[in-house]
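Hello again,

I reread your note about wanting to compare the complex against the isolated chains. To keep things tidy I'm splitting this into two emails, and this first one only covers the full assembly. Below are the input lines as submitted, including protein chains and any nucleic acid or small-molecule components. They are followed by the predicted structure of everything together. The single-chain runs will come separately.
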Amino acid sequence: MMTLSPVLLIAAPLLLAFLSILSKKVAPILLVVASLFNIAVLFFIPAGIVNIGGFDQPVGINLFVDNFSFYGLLAVNVLFAIVVILNLKNYPKYSTVLLVSLAALNGLLLTGDLFNLFVFLEIASISAYLITSSNKKPSSTFKYLVLGSLGSSLYLFGLIILYAMFGTLNLMDMIHQIDVANAPYTSLILPFFLMFAGIGVEAKLLPFNSWAKPIFEHSNTLSGPMIGSVYAATMSLVMARLITNLFAFEGTLLTVVTVLLVAGVVLGEVMAFSTKNIREILLYSSISQVSIAMLLFLNQIGWWGFFLVLVNAFSKLVLFFIINHAVKDSNDDSLHGLKGLFRKNIVVGVIFTIVSLSVAGLPLFVGFIIKLNYMTILAVQGQIWLVAIILLATVVEGIYFIRLLVKLWYKEEGEDLSVHFPLVYKLIFGAIALAILAFGLYSTPLTSVNTTLDSVGDQIEVIYNE
Amino acid sequence: MKNFLALVLVLLLSAGIIITLQNNDLFPVFGEAQVVNRVSDHYITKGSTQPIIWGETTDAEDGAANIVTSIVVNYRSFDTLGEVTVLFVSAMGVALLLSSGRTSKRLALNFKPNFMLRVGSRALFGIILMTGVYIILHGHLTPGGGFPGGVMIASSVLLLYLADDEFRSKIKGFKVLEGVAGSLYVIVVLLGLILATYFLQNFLPTGTVGDLFSAGILPIVYILIGLKVGSEISGLIDNFLTEEEAA
Amino acid sequence: MIQYAAIVLIVLGIYGLLTNRNVLKMIISINVMEVGLNLFIISVGYVTDGFAPILSSVHNSSALIYVDPLPQALVLTAIVIGVGTTALGLALAKNMYNKYHTLNLDEMRDE
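Full-complex prediction:
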């Protein structure tokens, strides 16, 4: 069985990106080739550490492949391929930028070095600004740019304070040095909070997400799913990796971060309940789901947080795509304007219903299984307040999603909307919806997983205690 | 009122940061950094137990006399690949955002340069270009390298733009140069994967520290980076200084 | 001393971001903050009486005391990234001016 190096996941799209500016016609083809190639290469990658340039870490940079990276990469690459293939005809000018963002997203999930993470974060952010510029609203892209630069600079500031204290930039080495030096946690509060804030801007956590509303208000079939699903999944997974291994919040910082995340959950649901714009509803629901996922990682409920992030990414892909396509075809984006959308598009309507009810966590769908499991574990851990807040949030979410669905299905007198969904949408989204239904009814594969997810801690033991 | 609140917030923030850093035992006082405890110790000694002597040591792990260059292009070259990509995607983005149609002309400005300026700048152009090329070629011996050298080359092009109303460079040529240089850079690093066992490994002999032809693939990589950066930023300048042809 | 100056520059940039609504001034504030950050990064590596980390005919052995070269390499990357985002910000500013005929974010309401 041939093994390939994981560097190919990053180097191949980059090479194709540099070549694609030589010819405008070939660029979209290269984009599709790169995304499919990445998915194929994933199956030939061995787990473990890969040193780049032959220099052992911490002198050199290393890539880290374990269950967490592998499944995360699989999900992100598949999502990216779906977004790209469905948008091929509409946005050919953005092929080079999309190739670079593919390389950056893969790099973010693979890297084991903190400064390398900063560089890939910047590449991914700049590609994101350019992807949102397809909305043709330069002022919202500018606000995103300003906040994104501020966030990355804060992350770098925190990282440099850590470097001055411990003398290394490698993730595993840093954790080992923190253990060895037995530093009091108060000295680590400032750098950890700065790094948390830096990635929090991109991951849309409160209170760093004021850029998100103008971007999604006017999104289209390329920027909406890409930023709302692919980027959201990657940034959440990066944040989860750091929370579980590096930050290890305790004491005051744990309280502060928990309060921020809980505020994110509550405010997200409240804002979603009170708005009439469909895309804002989806965005605020996303924000609260991400905050819940981060709370799970904070409490060491790794597998369920991981599932929540992935299922949410797939669901938001379907939802954003359907809504943005409908808005594009009918030129109207208020809740009022899209009334009765599904009367003529029954299949799409059924798909949308299944996916949105799964996001809300209603029974029969996989969202409910995930919610049930993590709430039981939280209750067993004794976090009654969290369970209560999440239950309340679920109720609110159920209400506004059902209200949304009612508006979209039923219509009083008036002319019907003429929105047409191409067959390929129905096929791909139908497959996703079917998977959501299937896992909701037969959930043993999810509940019986018992391999470890994130092996950074194990590798540190192996390397430093032999 | 908003300004006052912002001022208070900012003062609190700076006081907080300064006090936290001063109370932090592990954060070294300015000037007393213990380099031997840090990763940089390996970069300075190049991993060998004998001291590296300028002009005499051969076949060191990395033959560059400029230690910062050896970090940027050899030990942590993956970061440099990322940096090159950042510049690339920014230049692409500016071209995407500011792309005018088929017909484009120079942006009309208020000043009109005179004859002396136009002729004199062409003489100066050669000198600045040569300085940029010198800095790129000696990146492994003196401070500088591909990035500042490439920007100097682009600044010589900027001089021509500023001194002459009618000047427009050949954009197509720059794009081809940029694409080719970038692809060659990624191919060189991929070759490291195939010829040696690791990605980006230095696969040419490293020679004596201090010679012009030393340090393996470092000068080659820096030349490619310099060409790429120079053509990218020239293209960027051109995008800013053009506008639609008045219909 | 220099670390205080660097922190002052960083918070000055943040203050500029919070209070200005003119697009060009916001870009300049981000640049000021990044300059402060780069200064801080370099200052972390300073060793008193250390030499610049380049082997030459004057300092020809690696056994002498050098300043830390790693923060300098990090700053090289950070400067280039700052240039990239500034270029994008200015291109967006040009687009915004062409579309709304003003450079003040509060006055840009569309339709």
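For quick reference: Chain A touches chain C through 25 residues (CB under 8 Å).

B.
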